[in-house]
Specification:
Layout (H helix, E strand, L loop, with lengths): L3 H6 L4 E6 L4 H8 L5 E5 L7 H14 L2 E5 L6 H8 L4 E4 L5 H10 L15 H4 L4 H7 L1 E6 L2 H5 L1 H5 L6 E4 L1 H9 L8 H16 L3 E5 L3 H9 L4 E6 H16 L17
Parallel strand pairs: 1-2, 1-8, 2-3, 3-4, 4-5, 5-6, 6-7, 7-8
Helix pairs in contact: 2-3
């Protein structure tokens, strides 16, 4: 198992898991599976800060790189998640350069940013020297709307933004009002446009996928950070598949996750 930065230094794609159900044990299981990173989802998952930092602690015990998606692009949130021991922050719904600048600033100490200094726990696991810590952590912003795709070059060229994490479901909803646009030519073109903007500006293109097969395909297309699925989706899919076998049914829908890659 290697960390995110090791993957990128070696020119490899990092593959990750996603924690949304709020169980530290589930986080430990994912962390021990060989993923390069595991993300604690404080936006859509059932995770608040009181539980989130415990999941980060559990992940650190497995040696996997802990990532946190914060709920809002609001200055205190990235700093709080970093104080808990996260190494990578994912900031949702970034639609402009100004919003990308706010996200990047929230992740770093002065003079590069506005993160408040108080490494009560982070000092134990990442360090206490502001310049060194600024270099050790990463800020990813989410491009997940039509407006953000149109501003991709401005967002990707923002100093302090280390990568973009594409939200394909929200992007589809932004395009059509439903998730029906996922997989369409327009949807694929938008995703490719963001990836190419990342490559032009030398930052990491990342994306949420529907599972291992799609993650492999996207990695071959140049994505360097691919999340396979959430803990809830994996649990649902495996439980449904085992139940289908027990009942000797060939109903393929019984073995799939009705919630898709998100649970």
């Amino acid at each position: 198992m290697t960390g995110l930065r090791d993957c990128w230094t070696a020119g490899r794609t990092a593959f990750g898991g996603w924690c949304g159900i709020g169980s530290p044990f589930a986080a430990e299981i994912l962390g021990s599976c060989g993923f390069d990173y595991v993300c604690v989802d404080m936006q859509h998952g059932l995770v608040d800060f009181d539980r989130g930092w415990v999941l980060v602690q559990a992940l650190r015990g497995t040696g996997v790189t802990p990532v946190v998606r914060v709920p809002f692009n609001h200055t205190p949130w990235p700093g709080k998640a970093l104080d808990a021991g996260a190494e990578v922050i994912i900031v949702p719904m970034v639609n402009s350069r100004a919003e990308a600048e706010a996200a990047a600033a929230a992740c770093r100490y002065a003079p590069e940013g506005v993160r408040s200094y108080g490494p009560v726990r982070a000092g134990l696991v990442i360090g206490t020297d502001p310049p060194a810590v600024n270099r050790a952590i990463s800020c990813f912003v989410m491009i997940e709307t039509v407006r953000a795709v149109e501003a991709a070059d401005e967002i990707c060229s923002t100093p302090g933004v280390d990568g973009v994490y594409i939200g394909p479901a929200d992007l589809a909803v932004s395009m059509s009002g439903t998730t029906a646009a996922m997989g369409s030519d327009a949807h694929r073109d938008a995703i490719d446009e963001v990836k190419r903007a990342c490559e032009r500006h030398g930052i990491v293109p990342g994306i949420h996928t529907s599972g291992g097969a799609e993650a492999r395909t996207l990695a071959e297309l140049g994505f360097k950070m691919c999340t396979l699925a959430t803990d809830a989706a994996l649990l649902r899919a495996k439980a449904s598949a085992e139940l289908a076998q027990a009942r000797e049914t060939s109903d393929s829908s019984s073995g799939s996750s009705s919630g898709g890659p998100f649970g």
